[in-house]
């Protein structure tokens, strides 16, 4: 141990990842794909700690994450019950009517890098929704079509996509890949104690079977326990419950009614009286759950709402109850310890940000891994700055969905619009958007998690009105009409070309996809 | 012509059946690309540019010969219904027969337009024995059955060694129309020649090296196919003039 403490200026050559859920194994895979041959990468996980495993929606970033790890996409689909995701459908968020829905697709509006179509769409006052007018993915969702054909190579597609996956199987899949292909050492042991070093970092972790595990960099993937960063190093948790009210989840798994029931290629989020219900289609089953605010609903009421959504089969399903706490650590990297995953913080899964945050955190560590202990504080400061920015933007973006709702049937929705619950940064943007549409200049961070297009989809999907002055028109009506016509053409082409989602998934399971 | 379905071939039931080989009347011959087997590879590559393509139903790679340039264009069918080259790909030549999975029974598709009771090749002699046409057909069916697995493992070995690459061909025709062919894959010559001695020896032992070079060299037949298309176009222009 002494050697380690005296290592100032010495090179960083070993990483210990503590915790083996999706966060631990994704981090292990991302780091080991780059450093598996040149560094010692170890993951220690307790055989008795159950993983949370509810994060079942990803972002399109997961494609490159898997590809860079050298994973065959066919194997991933087969072993993780994975399915395609074009985006999310938000139902009953605006006024709660049966016909109330809008889409947030994964693809940018047509010609987005050249023209901002939003002002034209607003001026046109047409009867087609924003997403339908500017992006062809809504049409694919409504028809339950896959984003690609069976002859397209792995990770290639006609429409951009993300995944729905079985989190438990995903973790197992990554474990095998990391240990068999990427040289990650896997230890099964229960942590009994974490020892601090004199400089206020982590010295080592002790296990109940008497091991002392040390490393140059510790990655805390211990979930909500935040054993290293929170408990041992005492980094405070910043509660965001005053903005985001959701603090409970009820999760269930529903089998498909038949082999013909469509596998929906998008996440459905249906607003309820005190929160919203997620509905995520895998190849094997649907994952359905209600996240709600315990200040606005009792557990019984929540269970009733979930039962209503699921239907008669609800009584045969087992329901998992989870307490959650919205918020994040004050910093995420302290001394030689960086937290990734729930140990860093938690936010409701409305925009599937959990796995994405793990990916960007682990990729940051991978790309800027300090060479020496001396440069570690510089990288840590950068990491903390970047991650704080990401968490704040995600919180703003999640809150935006609640602020734009016009529902007044329950206090949950009314309280959500109370100005004291709205982050200042979001309030400022909302003021700006009364007369400006969000576009490239508004979100200029190098690695912005939500592009301006996402704000457009939510704002105009939820009926927000930006007053467009004549001055702000930057292109001609012809350019707008050409883009909308091009989108129309894309819709008819895609609808003709692309197969049913369930059919394609069956073919992938049967024949596989080619790497080229 | 015939409305019958698929029947197990019997010398009593099918004593008077005739097969009238006419490629103009064979729906499955109206294709610009046909799957071929490793067991016919020499004859195929000597006559047609041969590639790997993806099965549109399954996405799996197949070995295939190119017969034309547009959907359903088969340049090898003459106006009199005969085939323009010395080797008819087996999956077309075997019409209207196929073998059962265990290779014990021969089946005939009575609905195939070639099946009739008047003209063409007889299957059985008067005393119920196979005619030479049918002996030849049976040999062909056996070659197909044994060739399917062999072809799959040929393709798989090429893929496993990373020896397959997409090709994009720009072709120019006499009528100055040029065409870009998509969806074709070929052997990666550079990778093939840079394999280790052990790998090369292994592929040679499996008979795959020879096949890989046959496929590679068949690209030269692309010129003949363009030539054929140009010639047919010229004839067509003369006729319509």
Any overview of this molecule?
The complex is a heterodimer of chains A (516) and B (241). Chain A is α+β, with helices and mostly antiparallel strands and 516 residues long. Chain A is built from 17 helices and 21 strands. Chain A has two domains: 12-81 and 164-238 and 327-393, FAD/NAD(P)-binding domain, CATH 3.50.50.60; 88-147 and 242-325 and 398-492, 3-Layer(bba) Sandwich (FAD/NAD(P)-binding domain). Chain A has helices at residues 2-5, 22-35, 61-68, 73-79, 118-124, 130-134, 137-142, 167-180, 227-232, 299-310, 353-367, 376-403, 411-416, 424-433, 452-461, 477-497, 501-511, and strands spanning 14-18, 40-45, 83-85, 87-91, 101-105, 162-164, 185-188, 191-196, 202-207, 212-213, 217-220, 237-239, 248-254, 267-271, 275-281, 286-292, 320-323, 327-329, 333-334, 337-339, 345-346. In chain A, the strands form five sheets. A seven-stranded mixed sheet of chain A has the order 5-4-14-15-16-13-17. A six-stranded mixed sheet of chain A has the order 7-2-1-11-20-19. In chain A, helix 2 (22-35) runs parallel beside helix 11 (353-367) and helix 11 runs antiparallel to helix 12. The longest helix of chain A is centred in the last third of the chain and has 28 residues, at 376-403. By secondary structure, chain B is an alpha+beta fold. Chain B has one domain (6-240). Chain B has seven helices and eleven strands. In chain B, the strands form four sheets. In chain B, strands 1-7-6 form a three-stranded antiparallel sheet. Chain B has a three-stranded antiparallel sheet with strand order 8-2-9, with no helix packed on it. A three-stranded antiparallel sheet of chain B has the order 3-5-4, covered by helices on one side. The longest helix of chain B has 29 residues, at 132-160. The mean pLDDT of chain B is 91. The chains are: A alpha+beta (516), B alpha+beta (241). Chain A binds chain B through residues 149-152, 507, 510-516, and chain B through 54-61, 159, 164-166, 183, 185.
């Amino acid at each position: 141990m002494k050697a380690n403490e005296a290592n100032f200026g010495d090179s960083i050559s070993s990483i210990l990842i503590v915790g083996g859920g999706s966060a631990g194994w994704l981090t292990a895979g991302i780091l080991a794909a780059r450093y598996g041959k040149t560094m010692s990468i170890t993951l220690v996980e307790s055989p008795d700690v159950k993983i949370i495993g509810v994060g079942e929606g990803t972002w399109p970033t997961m494609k490159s994450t898997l590809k860079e790890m050298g994973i065959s996409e066919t194997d991933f689909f087969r072993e993780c019950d994975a399915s395609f995701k074009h985006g999310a459908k938000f139902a009953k968020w605006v006024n709660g009517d049966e016909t109330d829905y809008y889409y947030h697709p994964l693809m940018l509006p047509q010609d987005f890098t050249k023209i901002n179509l939003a002002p034209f769409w607003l001026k046109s006052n047409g009867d087609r929704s924003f997403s339908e007018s500017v992006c062809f993915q809504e049409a694919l969702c409504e028809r339950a079509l896959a984003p690609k054909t069976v002859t397209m190579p792995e990770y290639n597609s006609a429409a951009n996509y993300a995944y729905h996956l079985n989190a438990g199987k995903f973790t197992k899949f990554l474990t095998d890949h990391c240990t068999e292909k990427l040289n990650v050492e896997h230890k099964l042991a229960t942590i009994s104690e974490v020892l601090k070093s004199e400089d206020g970092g982590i010295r080592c972790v002790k296990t109940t079977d008497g091991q002392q595990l040390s490393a140059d960099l510790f990655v805390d993937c211990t979930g909500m326990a935040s054993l290293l960063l929170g408990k041992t190093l005492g980094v405070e948790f910043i509660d965001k419950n005053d903005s985001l009210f959701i603090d409970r989840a009820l999760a269930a798994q529903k089998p498909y009614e038949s082999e013909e029931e469509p596998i929906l290629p998008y996440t459905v989020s249906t607003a309820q009286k005190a929160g919203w219900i997620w509905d995520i289609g895998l190849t094997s089953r649907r994952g359905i759950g209600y996240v709600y605010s315990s200040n606005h609903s009792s557990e019984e009421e929540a269970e009733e709402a979930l039962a209503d959504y699921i239907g008669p089969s609800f009584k045969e399903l087992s329901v998992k109850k989870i307490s959650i706490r919205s918020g994040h650590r004050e910093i995420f990297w302290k001394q030689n310890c960086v937290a990734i995953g729930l140990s860093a913080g938690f936010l409701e899964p409305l925009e599937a940000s959990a796995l994405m945050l793990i990916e960007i955190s682990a990729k940051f560590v991978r790309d800027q891994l300090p060479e020496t202990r001396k440069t570690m504080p510089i990288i840590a400061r950068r990491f903390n700055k970047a991650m704080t920015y990401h968490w704040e933007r995600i919180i703003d973006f999640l809150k935006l969905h609640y602020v734009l709702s016009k529902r007044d049937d329950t206090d949950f929705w009314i309280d959500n619009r109370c100005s004291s619950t709205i982050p200042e940064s979001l309030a400022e943007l909302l003021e700006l958007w009364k007369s400006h549409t969000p576009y490239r200049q508004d979100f200029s961070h190098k690695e912005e998690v939500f592009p301006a297009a996402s704000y457009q989809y939510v704002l105009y999907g939820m009926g927000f009105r930006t007053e467009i002055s004549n001055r702000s028109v930057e292109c001609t009506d012809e350019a707008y009409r050409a883009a909308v016509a091009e989108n129309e053409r894309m819709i008819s082409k895609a609808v003709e070309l692309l197969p049913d989602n369930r059919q394609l998934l069956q073919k992938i399971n049967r024949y596989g996809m080619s790497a080229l | 012509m015939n409305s019958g379905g698929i029947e197990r071939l019997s010398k009593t039931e099918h004593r008077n059946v005739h097969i009238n080989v006419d490629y103009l009347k064979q729906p499955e011959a109206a294709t610009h690309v046909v799957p071929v087997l490793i067991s016919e590879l020499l004859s195929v590559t000597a006559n047609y540019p041969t590639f790997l393509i993806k099965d549109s139903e399954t996405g799996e790679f197949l070995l295939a010969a190119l017969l034309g340039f547009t959907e359903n264009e088969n340049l090898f069918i003459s106006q009199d219904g005969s085939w323009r080259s010395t080797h008819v790909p087996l999956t077309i030549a075997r019409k209207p027969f196929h073998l059962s999975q265990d290779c014990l029974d021969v089946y005939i598709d009575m609905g195939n337009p070639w099946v009739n009771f008047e003209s063409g090749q007889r299957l059985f002699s008067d005393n119920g024995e196979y005619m030479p046409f049918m002996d030849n057909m049976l040999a062909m069916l056996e070659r197909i059955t044994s060739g399917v697995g062999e072809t799959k493992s040929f393709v798989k070995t090429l893929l496993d060694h990373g020896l397959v690459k997409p090709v994009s061909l720009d072709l120019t025709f006499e009528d100055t129309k040029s065409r870009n062919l998509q969806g074709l894959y070929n052997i990666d010559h550079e990778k093939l020649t840079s394999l280790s001695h052990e790998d090369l020896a292994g592929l040679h032992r499996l008979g795959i090296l020879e096949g890989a070079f046959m496929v590679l060299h068949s690209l030269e037949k692309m010129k003949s196919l363009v030539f054929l298309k140009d010639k047919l176009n010229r004839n067509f222009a003369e006729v319509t003039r």
